[in-house]
Amino acid sequence: DQDVKVYKVHSPFTRPPPPPAQPPQPPSSAKFVSYEAELRCSPGLATCPSCRTRVTTEVTFKAGTFAWLMCLVFVLVLGCCLIPFFVNHFKDAYHSCPRCRRVLHVHKKRCCE
């Protein structure tokens, strides 16, 4: 007989209700990752599109174009070409999700950095 309003409070420990159904959209080839700050050579906060979780990325380094270019420069100048392959400063930084291991971002090393 009374008008009673019911409020649902969600704490950080409870799951929010599912979002309302949306009409299907055509599949997109690009998936977007949201970053808290620009991801460079150190771990950063990002939201993984695969597992939909906010994570601190794991960073692994792999030799890319810049490392090979520096290898050539070191051969011409110093006669030693292996330095860029042992120093992370010359390598590309691969940011991945620690939960699902998906690569979220690749920070390519450039000459101007």
UniProtKB/TrEMBL annotation:
<feature type="compositionally biased region" description="Pro residues">
    <location>
        <begin position="14"/>
        <end position="27"/>
    </location>
</feature>
<feature type="domain" description="LITAF">
    <location>
        <begin position="28"/>
        <end position="109"/>
    </location>
</feature>
<dbReference type="InterPro" id="IPR006629">
    <property type="entry name" value="LITAF"/>
</dbReference>
<dbReference type="Pfam" id="PF10601">
    <property type="entry name" value="zf-LITAF-like"/>
</dbReference>
<keyword id="KW-0479">Metal-binding</keyword>
<keyword id="KW-1133">Transmembrane helix</keyword>
<keyword id="KW-0812">Transmembrane</keyword>
<keyword id="KW-0472">Membrane</keyword>
<feature type="region of interest" description="Disordered">
    <location>
        <begin position="1"/>
        <end position="30"/>
    </location>
</feature>
<keyword id="KW-0862">Zinc</keyword>
<dbReference type="InterPro" id="IPR037519">
    <property type="entry name" value="LITAF_fam"/>
</dbReference>
<dbReference type="GO" id="GO:0098560">
    <property type="term" value="C:cytoplasmic side of late endosome membrane"/>
</dbReference>
<feature type="transmembrane region" description="Helical">
    <location>
        <begin position="66"/>
        <end position="87"/>
    </location>
</feature>
<dbReference type="GO" id="GO:0008270">
    <property type="term" value="F:zinc ion binding"/>
</dbReference>
<dbReference type="GO" id="GO:0005634">
    <property type="term" value="C:nucleus"/>
</dbReference>
<dbReference type="GO" id="GO:0098574">
    <property type="term" value="C:cytoplasmic side of lysosomal membrane"/>
</dbReference>
<protein>
    <submittedName>
        <fullName>Lipopolysaccharide-induced tumor necrosis factor-alpha factor homolog</fullName>
    </submittedName>
</protein>
<comment type="similarity">
    <text>Belongs to the CDIP1/LITAF family.</text>
</comment>
